[in-house]
């Protein structure tokens, strides 16, 4: 078997580069699978990348030009699938990494998509709705030859939502001269969205956490949970897990944290946040420093916000038994080594947060069939896929004597490489 030597290019200085982080995990999984050099080159490379410059006339009459990206990592198993994020710190390396993670994520849960991702460098908080719509529609028009139900199916991501997906779907449909609902997922249900889609990522996290509890001999009622991020993923996970009997002891947000050892009333906290704009000052708990709250003793830590929140500088401070990665790339490669030493059971992002893309797949299927499922069927099929995928990953980990993250990468790489070998290389 090929041996793995950690990349000399990974260091404290660059450990938060997402493209490099993806490459380091890829290298170890590929070596352990004994993939030949040629296949490694194919799987490591992106298939297509486009950079677009988007002119938008702002409400005050000024013209501004925004930069956007769309990346296809692999199309071996089906159309590209991946979100679009609007943020001031979007980079091409980040979009490349996220596209590759989508390839591996879709392969881990064995759905027929490849990996794609998009982003626009902007601050949506300072744009009006009219400006945001102009930006979205022009970005869509610029990448229109890249996307489509059989090519690339975008979805919401950071700072994008079902309204923005509706604008993308409408713009694409206007160019095609007929309505094409399957061009995006995460749409409003009135426009072909799937029931259960808003809750899907958080629900998927809960399903794999329940499987991990079984493995470790814990019950939900005994399980203290800290959730970092209270948006769509973290908020939905908190709501669903609280209803399932988990004790949500702390919610951590960018501007503060709230703690109650007996368990927070999640519904009341969500209402408080809607009214005040913050989790701080909630009467059902005590305020905490958000930079310290992640390191509370707990059974489950669920980071559900941004990349790189767990790194070499703080991983040693974690006091959880299970780390469930609701966000994309919350843990750096150097932190992985610390987590292994601490014997923390990691549910890696390409498994943990795959509930969203799984129900997006269901939405795409429903749009193409013109036949829609009830929410019970959506959730039942999601649970089945998340359970099967969890079992497949831990089986790989046990069989190959690797941690769960490398096991998930090995499973994904194996499936994508197998598809490429079956298809052959067109020449």
The largest pleated sheet is described as: 7 strands, mixed
Average pLDDT for all residues: 95
The level of helicity is: 40-55%
Structural class designation: alpha/beta
CATH homologous superfamily heading of the domain at 200-352:
NAD(P)-binding Rossmann-like Domain
Q: Got a strand count?
A: 12
Helix count equals 14
**End-to-end span in angstroms?**
31 Å
Morphology: globular
Whole-angstrom Rg: 21 Å
Binned strand content: 15-25%
Order of helices and strands: HHEEEHEHEHHEHEEHEHEEHEHHHH
Query: Could you say what the CATH architecture of the domain at 200-352 is?
Result: 3-Layer(aba) Sandwich
In the CATH scheme, what's the topology name of the domain at 200-352? Rossmann fold
Low-confidence stretches: 1-8
CATH class bucket of the domain at 200-352: Alpha Beta
What does this structure look like?
- The chain has helices at 18-33, 37-44, 92-108, 129-142, 162-176, 200-216, 232-243, 266-276, 290-293, 333-341, 349-352, 355-369, 375-400, 404-423, and strands spanning 48-57, 63-74, 80-87, 114-121, 152-156, 224-228, 247-253, 256-259, 286-288, 300-303, 322-324, 345-347.
- By secondary structure, it is of the alpha/beta class.
- Among the domains are: 45-186, Leucine Dehydrogenase, chain A, domain 1 (Rossmann fold, 3-Layer(aba) Sandwich), CATH 3.40.50; 200-352, Rossmann fold.
- A hairpin with a 2-residue loop joins strand 7 (247-253) and strand 8 (256-259).
- Helix 6 (200-216) packs across helix 12, helix 6 packs across helix 13 (375-400) and helix 13 crosses helix 14 (404-423).
- The radius of gyration is 21 Å and the shape is globular.
